[in-house]
Design goal:
about 200 residues; alpha/beta; five-stranded mixed beta sheet; 5 strands; about 45% helix; about 10% strand; binds NADP nicotinamide-adenine-dinucleotide phosphate; oxidoreductase activity; Fungal_SecMetab_SDRs; SDR_fam; C-factor; NAD(P)-bd_dom_sf
Length: about 200
């Protein structure tokens, strides 16, 4: 596994692609997981353009640029398994999103005390990016799905969260193993449930 030091920095992305390419020795990349994300605790009254741009850059522009940069390696993997249906074994982009980006679920998830508006907006945009990638890369044989990891005990999720990182990661691994054409361009939760856009 390779970790990108800054998923919004073109030089850092280029370096990561080069490292991965050298490691793969021509084999192609079967799975790109865009996990980096930030959240700021702003509400409708105090959110400003700086925060919006900052959060959007990390949560949307980053995954878009990283996906573009890794596309040739993903395509290589897809081409090597051209007869196989879409799957994470063949080639896939998985964007770690959030139920907070689901417009349909907002009336249920909205908390006036924790609005995190820039985060919500950015994850809704990431969901749209995922849908566009799914449509655009389908014929290349690359599956694209957004995954909500659940409410997890991390710096972002806090100790009060419901899931341990292990529970969330195990669930996500199970979901990744089950992805097919049917799940191309949708938002799925860590437990395999589909979340409406
Ligand atoms: N935790 C939850 O309950 C929850 C719920 C729904 C969705 N998510 C999503 O799950 C993903 C992981 O979140 P988390 O809970 O692990 O959050 P976290 O504890 O705040 O960790 C975020 C991670 O993203 C990295 N990161 C941030 N900006 C980056 C950049 N520009 N380039 C490279 N790495 C960057 C951070 O690296 P540094 O430490 O080096 O800054 C850190 O490792 C995020 O996309 C988040 O939106 C989390």
């Amino acid at each position: 596994m390779f970790v990108l030091t800054d998923a919004t920095n073109p030089d850092s992305i280029k370096k990561a692609v080069k490292n991965v390419e050298e490691h793969l020795e021509g084999a192609g990349l079967n799975l790109l997981l865009n996990n980096a994300g930030i959240m700021s605790h702003v509400n409708l009254d105090n959110v400003d353009s700086e925060d919006m741009i900052n959060v959007f850059k990390t949560n949307v522009v980053g995954p878009m640029q990283v996906s573009q940069a890794f596309y040739p390696l993903l395509k290589e993997s897809a081409d090597a398994r051209s007869q196989e249906p879409l799957s994470c074994k063949k080639a896939a982009v998985v964007n770690i999103s959030s139920v907070l980006g689901s417009i349909e679920r907002t009336s249920v998830t909205y908390d006036p005390a924790k609005q995190v508006v820039s985060y919500r907006i950015s994850k809704a945009a990431l969901n749209m990016l995922t849908k566009c990638q799914a449509e655009g890369y389908r014929t290349d044989g690359i599956l694209c799905t957004a995954v909500h990891p659940g409410w997890v005990k991390t710096d972002m999720g806090t100790e009060g969260a419901l899931l341990t990182t292990e529970q969330s990661a195990n669930g996500i691994l199970k979901v990744l193993g089950s992805l097919t054409e049917k799940e191309n361009g949708i938002l799925m939760a860590w437990d395999g449930k589909v979340i409406p856009w």
